[in-house]
Amino acid sequence: MDAINRQTMSTAVHEYQAIVDEGLNPQERAALATFGPDIRNARILDLGVGAGRTVTPLLALSQQYVGVDYMQEMVEHCRSKFPGVRFEKADARDMSVFPDSSFDLVFFSCNGICMVDHAGRLAILKEVSRVLRPGGTFVFSTCNRNSSQYEAGFRFPPFQSTRNPAAFLVRGSRFAAQTARRLRNRLRFRRHEVRTREYSILNDVCHHYSTMLYFIDMRQQPIQLESQGLTPVFQPYDLQGRPADEGCRDGTLAFVAKKPG
User: Fold this and answer.
1) Considering the entire predicted model, what is its pTM?
2) What is the per-residue pLDDT for 261?
3) Does residue 244 sit within a domain?
4) Which residues pair with 68 in a beta bridge?
5) SS3 assignment, position 254
6) Which residues make Cβ contacts (< 8 Å) with residue 162, sequence separation at least 6?
7) Does residue 174 fall inside a structural domain?
8) What CATH number did the domain enclosing 228 receive?
9) Can you give the pLDDT at residue 38?
10) What are residue 211's DSSP bridge partners?
11) In this structure, is residue 175 part of a structural domain?
């Protein structure tokens, strides 16, 4: 799983750059709002920073900011785009570069915690608990096992028809190439899928089926957090930034947890 996802992420920086200007989504803004006014000047650790979509919004809250990614390509990209801001290459499973209780807020967006296996996910939660100060906050998003995305079969790439013959030929060729890529990846990676009572790891459609993602539901995630010393304090938020219940079918849920003080 790690080798598959690292290979995909090593070439994804330009794809992620295309969404940098979107900033925080409604789900992330709602989750951060639970932090309250104390977020001003908080020490912030931004995990899985990618091409930097979250950098400017978090810097607006506090200049005590550090961005982290486990791909050197992402780190170098952010250093060039945001001069003077601190970025480090580090793996969320081992953040020994940071001392205990270094941060007030740890932020892990875009389902980044879902890019590792079960042991790796528990290691991330343990490390987050270590680097948070007592009473500190962890905001993260995760793939929802109760979603239609989890239950979906093979999905073809989008195709927009046109009456223009030349445009139709170009779009048709692109559709055929992307379909072939998806089928090839699906055949290669589906055998690595894992399904248990607590979680599942699936060959997800992201990046044309070149990723393996970890799915968990709303009942199991709080149990998992508590097992690693973190206390869930707010119910999850859906993609519209509304409190979610167990019937939520959105592909992503945002959770807020605290390190006991």
Assistant:
1) 0.93
2) 86
3) yes
4) 88
5) strand
6) 168, 171
7) no
8) 3.40.50.150
9) 79
10) 204
11) no
Q: Say if residue 158 is exposed, middle or buried (CB neighbours under 10 Å; 0-12, 13-18, 19+).
A: exposed
pLDDT interval class at 30 (50, 70, 90): very high
Domain boundaries, position 108: 2-151+189-258
Amino acid at 141: S
Q: Amino acid identity, residue 250?
A: D
Residue 15's identity, in one-letter code, is E
Phi-psi category of residue 50: left, alpha or beta, with phi > 0 → left and psi -120 to 50 → alpha? left
Question: What single DSSP character describes residue 243?
Answer: B
Q: How far apart are CA 195 and CA 70, in angstroms?
A: 26
Closest CA to 90 of 68, 116, 66, 58: 68
Q: What pLDDT score was predicted for residue 145?
A: 95
For 178-231, how does the pLDDT look when each residue is reduced to its tens digit (9 = 90+)? Answer: 999 999 999 999 999 999 999 999 999 989 999 999 999 999 999 999 999 999
Q: How far apart are CA 31 and CA 10, in angstroms?
A: 29
Q: Is residue 158 part of a domain?
A: no
The tens digit of pLDDT for each residue in 107-163 reads 999 999 999 999 999 999 999 999 999 999 999 999 999 998 888 889 999 999 888
- Cα(54)–Cα(68) distance, rounded to whole angstroms? 11
By DSSP bridging, strand 211-216 and strand 132-144 are parallel
Place of tokens 């200049």: 63
Both structure tokens of 148: 């239609």
What domain count does the chain have? Answer: 1
- C-alpha angle with apex 68: 238 to 198, nearest 5 degrees? 45
Q: What H or E segment, with its residue span, contains residue 7? A: helix 2-9
Integer-rounded Cα Rg, in Å, for the chain is 19
